[in-house]
Amino acid sequence: MNKERAPHISLHPHFTFYNLQYQRMKVFKFGGASLSSVERIRNVADILSLYTKEHVIVIMSAMGKTTNALEKVVEAFYSGNKEEALRLFQLIKQSHLTTAKYLLVTSYNATLEDLNAFFTEVEWLLHDKAVQSFDYYYDQVVCCGELLSSRIVSAYLNEKGITNRWFDVRDIIRTDNNFREANIDWPATKENLIRSNIQNNPGIYITQGFIGSTDQNESTTLGREGSDYTAAVFANILDADDLTIWKDVEGVMSADPKLFPSASLINQLSFSEVIEMAFYGAQVIHPKTIKPLQNKKIPLHVKSFLDPSLPGTVISDKSSKNLPPVIVIKANQVLIHLQSKDFSFVGERLMSTLYQLFAELNIKPNLIQTAAINLQVCFDDRQDKIEHLAQMASEIFDVQLEKNLTLLTIRHFTEDLLANMLHEKDVVLMQKNKETVQALYR
Ligand code: ASP
Ligand code: MG
C-alpha cells in the first residue's frame, strides 16, 4: 500500500497507529568500511536488530577494500597474466570464505553454494582470452564484491533472527552498456522495482549497491563509490521516508579530521550546499546521490555505524544556516598555462574549442582564469589525460604545465582563516566570491 494512501478508516486507534508505522519505508546504505571485519559485520547486525519490525531496504558495498583487490585481478587478466589473475582472485575467495566460516553456522553450507556460483562465474571468465574492452571485463569481475558481501551478511542476519530477503540488484537496476560508468535506465529500473512488489511487502531486504545490468544481462558498475547512488535511486523510486548512509565518521565534517583535528560536525545541511561541497571535491557522498533525493525531497542522514546514538548530519531541503567554514583540500593538481599562438584574444571560439576538448577527454577543470591572450586551467593530475590534453591544445596554444600543486577551497570563509591557511604558502592563483575562495599553491 502506498504510504500516501494509508487507511483512513480508524477501526481502533491502536490498529491505525500500527499500520501507519508499518508503512514507513527506509533505505540504508552500509559501505565497505562497515563490513570490513567479522566484528564490523556483527556491529551492522546490532544496528539492524533495532529495525526488525520495519520496512528497510539495505544497500551494501563490497567488504573493506575488496573492490580495489578485484581491480587488480582484472588488470592482471587484461595484461595477459592469467595465472596471476587467478592467484589474486584465490586470495579474495579465501578471505570471503574465512569470513563466512566465522559468521555462519546453520546456513554455512547453503551459503557456500551461492558463493561458489559467484566464484565460478568469475573464474570461467578469467580462463577466457580477452577479446572485449577492459571496461567490459572490469564490470563482469568487480561486480562480484557486492554480491559476495551481501550474500554472507544476509545469511548471518537470518541466523541471528533478523529475518531478511536477499535479492540480486542486477534484476532491478537496468543500465546502458557504458561499462564502468553505466547510466541508469530509469523507466526500466522503475518498472522492475515496482514489479518486484517490494513496496507492498514490508520487511528487511538486503541487496547490493554499485552494480546493475544491461538488457543483455551483462553486469555493469556505476562508477567507484557508486553505492550511495544506488541507495538514492531506490529511495527515489520507492518514495522512501528517508535514506541513511552509515559511515565510520560522526557525520559530515567541516574539514577532513585527519588533516584538521579541529574539524567540527555539521548537524544540518541543504541539498544545494552538499552539491557545492561535492563540486569542490569534498568527499562527503557520491555527487550523483543528491539529485534523486532532492527531486523527491527525501532527507539524507549521514550517521556513524560505530555509535548510532549520535545524531549525525541531516541533509534536506531546508536551507542551512550559520555554517562553519568548510575546508576542502585537493593535492596533486596540475596547472596548465595556455597562450594563444598568434596573439589572438581568448574569446568564445577558442574557449568553446577548449571546452570541447575537456568534454572529449572527460576531465573537469577545478579552476579557470582567463586574460586577454592567455588562460590558466587547473585539473586533478590524471597524467594520461593531461598529456593528451596538452598535446591537443598545443595546436592552438603555447602550452606550459606546472605540477604538484595544492588547491584549497573554503566555503563561508573568513579573511582570518584564509590568511592562516595560506601562511608561508606560495600562491599561484586565487579566486574569491562572496561564499567561496579558492587558492592554488606550491
Ligand atoms: N565497492 C565499490 C567501491 O569501493 C562501491 C562503493 O563502495 O560504493 O567503489
Ligand atoms: Mg565504499
Describe the protein in words.
By secondary structure, this protein is an alpha/beta fold. The chain has two domains: 25-247, 3-Layer(aba) Sandwich (Carbamate kinase), CATH 3.40.1160.10; 326-441, VC0802-like (2-Layer Sandwich). Helices cover 39% and strands 22% of the residues. The chain contains 14 helices and 16 strands. It has helices at residues 13-23, 38-48, 66-78, 82-103, 108-127, 134-142, 144-159, 186-196, 227-237, 271-279, 290-295, 348-361, 383-393, 415-421; strands at residues 25-30, 55-60, 164-166, 204-208, 211-213, 219-221, 242-247, 268-270, 300-304, 313-316, 326-340, 367-370, 374-380, 397-411, 427-432, 436-441. An eight-stranded mixed β-sheet has the order 3-4-2-1-7-9-10-8, with helices on both faces. Strands 12-13-11-14-16-15 form a six-stranded antiparallel β-sheet. A hairpin with a 3-residue loop joins strand 15 and strand 16. Helix 4 (82-103) runs parallel beside helix 7 (144-159). 38% of the residues are buried. The model is unreliable at 1-22 (pLDDT under 50). The structure holds aspartic acid and magnesium ion. Aspartic acid binds at residues 31-32, 61-62, 67, 145, 209-210, 224-227.
